[in-house]
Write a structure and sequence with these properties.
alpha/beta; 8-stranded parallel beta sheet; 11 helices
């Protein structure tokens, strides 16, 4: 049957490679028949074993394969297998593929459950642009050479648990509409998932990536789990989008790691126990909005705190300060609203972006100076005959704000100031606020230029 959504696809049952892979029959029920799967696997592995070198055969035995599965067919057995494949195909005018060729399932439509559990692919394989309408099970399979799944569509469940990719694994533009499992999978060479879409959850728990790995522009619509994953070579999550929970607990990043432009619109990634490389990048990353209640704050605070701690350990001062500001902003929602602690947090952000900005204190310093000028003009004009000039009001305002530094401003002794209680209160406030803004300005310079 052709795929009704893509008429360019051809049925897998028209492909001689599929006849070999399912020589004892297709999976017909709602669940995979393990006995049928085993019989097909042993037959397939014996057929392709002819392409194995002694070195590869030894490596596979060390990885759990038995001699029976890796023993090439005898002439009699090969004849029987050939007859079974012809019977499976329903045709007699065909020749079976050469085991030394790369199996090609590109643009095939798999109507039934697809069981490749424990299958061996000595020459790699191509499933480019294939569509799996039912479960696709590749758990425990071994790809000794490059494997291509680019633009493949998994309509339901995709199982790659404990799969070993000894060659390059190319899964660009793949779509997995339901659960995707890559737990304990091993990628010995280059691995790429660029622009793939995981519409439901996906798990790479305990997966091992030995070569360069690419998750650029991937969309994780459901939860994604990289717990205890190992990245031994550069890994890129550039412009990836994590729409749901993402967990990297106890993951190990042993080489350059890039989250440049990664988007976390709703949930922060969890990196508890993770080990980062000093080449970790977060530029252009987009983070969730500040929390609006305590539940969100309780999730964000420890996540930002963990990232801050790791960046501090790696001496990445700019990133450390960034995550520290995010942590402080999230902590505000853990305080009782309008309490003293809440207001202190709020003012710290507004006046200096938590000590990071040197321009915000200058802005508020100028604003306070101008307000002071108006206050002192109004205060002096209320006393008949004692009104002061604009420049005199400015001298008073700047002198009050500079506090102990007011000697640098020439204030004439004849300047009259109000002795009213309100003016005296503002005088004290202006002096205190001015010195505080000077301190925040210096703090901003220190943090901006990473001074210690």
């Amino acid at each position: 049957m052709d795929d009704p959504e893509n008429p360019e696809l051809t049925p897998a049952n028209d492909n001689p490679w599929y006849w070999l892979a399912t020589v004892y029959g297709e999976q017909t029920g709602g669940f995979i028949d393990e006995n049928l799967e085993k019989k097909n696997r042993i037959a397939w592995n014996a057929w392709v074993a002819a392409a194995l070198s002694e070195e590869k055969r030894k490596t596979l035995i060390e990885n759990g394969f038995t001699n029976n599965e890796l023993t090439t067919f005898s002439d009699l057995a090969k004849t029987e297998h050939y007859a079974a494949a012809l019977k499976r195909s329903g045709r007699e005018d065909i020749s079976l593929p050469n085991p030394f060729d790369r199996p090609d399932f590109s643009k095939n439509y798999f109507e039934k459950n697809c069981a490749f559990k424990g299958y061996l692919f000595p020459q790699g394989v191509t499933f480019a642009s294939a569509t799996f309408s039912q479960e696709a099970n590749f758990s425990g399979a071994i790809f000794l050479e490059d494997s291509y799944f680019s633009s493949a569509t998994f309509t339901t469940f995709a199982n790659f648990n404990s799969t070993t990719f000894m060659g390059a694994a190319v899964l660009n533009l793949v779509t997995i509409k339901q659960l995707g499992l890559f737990m304990s999978a091993t990628f010995d060479d280059f691995a790429s998932f660029k622009s793939s879409i995981f519409k439901d959850g996906v798990s790479f728990t305990s997966a091992k990536f030995a070569g360069e790995t690419v998750f650029e522009a991937v969309v994780f619509s459901g939860p994604v789990n990289f717990d205890s994953a190992e990245f031994k070579a550069p890994i890129r999550f550039n412009d990836a989008r994590f729409n749901s929970l993402s967990s990297f607990i106890n993951a190990t990043f042993s080489s350059k790691t890039a989250f440049s432009g990664a988007h976390f619109p709703h949930f922060l990634p969890e990196f508890f126990g993770a080990a980062f490389h000093e080449g970790t990048r977060w530029d252009r990353a987009k983070w969730p909005r500040p929390p609006i209640d305590q539940n969100e704050a309780q999730m964000q605070v420890p996540a930002y705190e963990r990232l801050k701690q790791e960046m501090e350990k790696l001496k990445k001062h700019e990133d450390e300060q960034f995550f520290f500001r995010k942590e402080l902003r999230a902590r505000r929602e853990l305080q009782k609203r309008w309490s003293f602690e809440w207001w202190m947090n709020f003012l710290y952000e507004w006046t200096s972006n938590y000590g990071h900005s040197a321009t915000q204190p200058i802005f508020w310093f100028i604003a306070l100076f101008e307000i002071g000028v108006l206050v002192w003009l109004a205060s002096s004009s209320q006393r008949a005959g004692l009104a002061i000039a604009l420049y005199e009001a400015g001298q008073i305002s700047i002198a009050k704000m500079l506090g102990s530094f007011s000697w640098i401003v020439p204030v004439g002794s004849e300047i009259k100031v109000s002795t009213k209680m309100l003016a005296q209160f503002f005088s004290a406030f202006q002096s205190l606020a001015g010195l505080l803004l000077i301190f925040l300005f210096l703090l901003g310079l220190r943090n901006r230029f990473r001074l210690r």
